[in-house]
Write a structure and sequence with these properties.
With 273 residues, this protein is mainly beta. It is built from two helices and 20 strands. Residues 1-20 form the signal peptide.
């Protein structure tokens, strides 16, 4: 992706033109009009073109999001106890049973946050950057997600979670990308839940009745739609107790808490923004 850059100062968004394609981070495919996802519905094909599936031994393992032409943002626990050389990344994917035009990559390196820790209940500093063995070219179906501003808060915002994970505790993974709307809780609301004693400042909660992210959605993006027409990745699917249990909101890694760390480990990649 060796591109001409155009800067839209009034949006603060960088746009790259490649063979007529102008890349804006977080922008759904122009063809779009308008977890394991429990309570989710079918996402319009390629409506979330940064979302990737990470497979291990040909089975759905985790989700992730394209942030540069060679880097995927995901959860640390997706790689901590697993050999990333046995994984592959499907980029530009909608249907796991239709890999036509889907870019497949292996992973050449993974950096897990240095302060990642895990207990029987929670994962802390649960973030990782995976490097692809070969860069991808941005297109209508492959677009990087926008990152938030450092320390940006999203409390009480409506967010979207997307993924191919299991659609129920005892059910199999979805073959097509699903989406569900959740409301991000303020830190104060999050601390009022039964999870309070397990929470840390780099975590955020989101919940809507009957909807949640489950196994297989780990590492996937929690997205907020901005007024400039682009999505920003507010969170990373991290941990929870059960799935869609009203007593326990889902817990996500706050991406805005780690902007400097992300930029440090993706500086050799190309971006739209």
């Amino acid at each position: 992706m060796y591109y001409i850059f155009y800067i839209y100062l009034f949006l603060g968004i960088q746009v790259m033109s490649v063979h007529g394609f102008k890349c804006r981070c977080g922008k759904p495919s122009d063809g779009i009009v308008s977890m394991r996802i429990v309570g989710g519905r079918r996402a319009e094909p390629h409506a979330f073109p940064w979302t990737v599936a990470i497979l291990k031994n040909e089975r759905m393992h985790c989700g992730g999001a394209v942030i540069t032409n060679k880097h995927i943002l995901s959860a640390g626990h997706c790689f901590k106890w697993d050999d990333f050389t046995s994984m592959k990344v499907l980029i530009g994917l909608d249907n796991l049973e239709d890999l036509n035009k889907v870019e497949q990559r292996s992973i050449s390196n993974v950096i897990i946050h240095e302060q990642f820790t895990s207990t029987a209940v929670r994962d802390e500093n649960d973030i990782a950057v995976a490097t692809l063995n070969q860069p991808v070219v941005f297109s209508e179906n492959i677009v990087p997600i926008c990152l938030p501003q450092p320390k940006e808060e999203f409390g009480d915002r409506v967010a979207t979670i997307v993924g191919w994970g299991r659609v129920g505790v005892e059910r199999s993974a979805s073959k097509v990308l699903l989406k569900a709307s959740l409301r991000i809780q303020s830190d104060e609301q999050c601390m009022e839940s039964l999870l309070a004693k397990h929470l840390k400042p780099m975590m955020m909660c989101a919940f809507s009745k009957g909807k949640d992210g489950c196994q297989g959605d780990s590492g996937g993006p929690l997205l907020v739609f901005e007024t400039n027409g682009t999505y920003v990745q507010a969170g990373i699917v991290s941990w929870g107790i059960g799935c869609a249990d009203p007593r326990y909101p889902g817990v996500y890694t706050k991406v805005s808490y780690f902007i400097d760390w992300i930029q440090k480990h993706t500086s050799d990649g190309e971006q739209c923004d």
